[in-house]
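Hi support team,

I've been running sequence recovery on a batch of backbones for a student project. Most finish fine, but this one hangs at about 90% for roughly twenty minutes before it completes. I'm not sure whether the input is malformed or the queue is just slow. I've pasted the structure tokens below so you can try to reproduce it. Let me know if you need the job ID as well.

Thanks,
M.K.
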């Protein structure tokens, strides 16, 4: 078969098996899943009510492809217009759609590495070269090296901020200078899936760059994390109207389902939405500090995170080894082979019960009890 040569060596993204399947396979009474960077809490109450109150008969009809109400609500949130907003089946789909708008055979896309594997697949699936750029020694995104890797044939640059899987945040001034310094033929995709957890002086300002009219920047956000809607798959891109229109041209006609639209709109519209999100962010800030401490006490080398997870180099040099050992104890974490860091693993911030169980498990593992 004449498959694209660029995808021959791609490794498919392997998501962790559902908890119930793992539990049955391992014969465990329970498994606490801290592997996939899902939010520690479910949908907001307003979103739950909106989904369960939706007319079941409408599910036989296609969703509203334009989703004007939701796009308008997102636009208002950021001081933009609906023409700046494109919806996606999660931010993951939008990563790929951005590549489709600019990449052709002979082009290349660059991205920091270790980072999110979809950047690799997005470039390769268009027939373009995927070009990773190593992180700095401290595991931060090396913006100078990224800029140096941009050639005449480069058409897209991906930057996750905070970066997944390291959780580190690029200084705001440095990232702005990087984006503004890119040549006009390069589209910069700022993947801000974890932006809500990074509040502070350097909180990602991607939407501000869009408000200022930068024509070659696309900012990605999602409802999967802090809003607790990962299972419904809905994210969005913010971009100048011309860039947004280009992404919209290659978007699947009905890529965001009806219930996802209902839940996302309710999440933004709830009168107490801001307060609930603030409480969730505060919970994560406390949890990631605890997880950092527990990992360090267990002999691993964690990095202080600005996302809802903590990255750590495994004491024995194998993230997969830690993943398998913890799984036997009823805790699922994420080995990072597929993210470019086989020596490390990542722990998602869970709720209080999940975090306490992880603390006991990582302590048992450190003391030789498996």
């Amino acid at each position: 078969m004449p498959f694209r040569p660029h995808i021959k060596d791609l490794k498919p993204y392997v998501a962790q098996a559902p908890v119930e399947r793992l539990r049955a396979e391992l014969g465990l009474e329970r498994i606490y899943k801290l592997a996939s960077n899902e939010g520690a809490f479910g949908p907001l109450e307003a979103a739950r009510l909106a989904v369960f109150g939706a007319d079941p008969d409408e599910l036989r009809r296609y969703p509203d492809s334009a989703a004007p109400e939701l796009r308008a609500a997102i636009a208002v949130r950021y001081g933009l217009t609906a023409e700046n907003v494109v919806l996606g089946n999660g931010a993951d789909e939008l990563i790929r759609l951005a590549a489709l708008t600019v990449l052709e055979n002979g082009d290349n896309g660059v991205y920091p590495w270790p980072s999110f594997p979809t950047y690799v697949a997005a470039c390769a699936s268009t027939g373009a070269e995927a070009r990773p750029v190593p992180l700095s020694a401290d595991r931060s995104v090396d913006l100078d090296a990224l800029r140096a890797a941009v050639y005449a044939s480069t058409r897209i640059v991906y930057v996750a901020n905070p970066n997944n899987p390291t959780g580190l945040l690029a200084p705001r001034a440095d990232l702005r200078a990087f984006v503004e310094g890119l040549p006009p033929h390069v589209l910069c995709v700022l993947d801000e899936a974890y932006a809500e957890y990074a509040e502070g002086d350097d909180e990602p300002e991607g939407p501000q760059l869009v408000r200022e009219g930068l024509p070659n920047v696309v900012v990605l956000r999602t409802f999967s994390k802090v809003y607790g809607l990962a299972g419904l798959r809905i994210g969005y891109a913010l971009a100048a109207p011309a860039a947004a229109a280009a992404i919209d041209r290659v978007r699947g006609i009905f890529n965001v389902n009806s219930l996802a639209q209902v839940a996302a709109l309710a999440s933004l519209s709830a009168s107490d939405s801001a307060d609930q999100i603030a409480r969730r962010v505060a919970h994560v800030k406390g949890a990631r500090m605890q997880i950092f401490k527990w990992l360090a006490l267990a002999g691993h080398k964690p990095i202080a995170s600005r996302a809802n997870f903590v990255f750590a180099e495994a004491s024995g040099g194998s993230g997969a080894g830690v993943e398998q050992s913890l799984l036997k104890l009823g805790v699922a974490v994420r080995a990072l082979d597929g993210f470019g860091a086989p020596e490390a693993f990542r722990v998602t911030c869970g709720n209080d019960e999940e975090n306490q169980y992880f603390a006991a498990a990582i302590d048992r593992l450190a003391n030789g009890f498996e």
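--
Follow-up from support: It reproduced on our side and the slowdown came from queue contention, not your input. The mean pLDDT is 95. No action needed from you.
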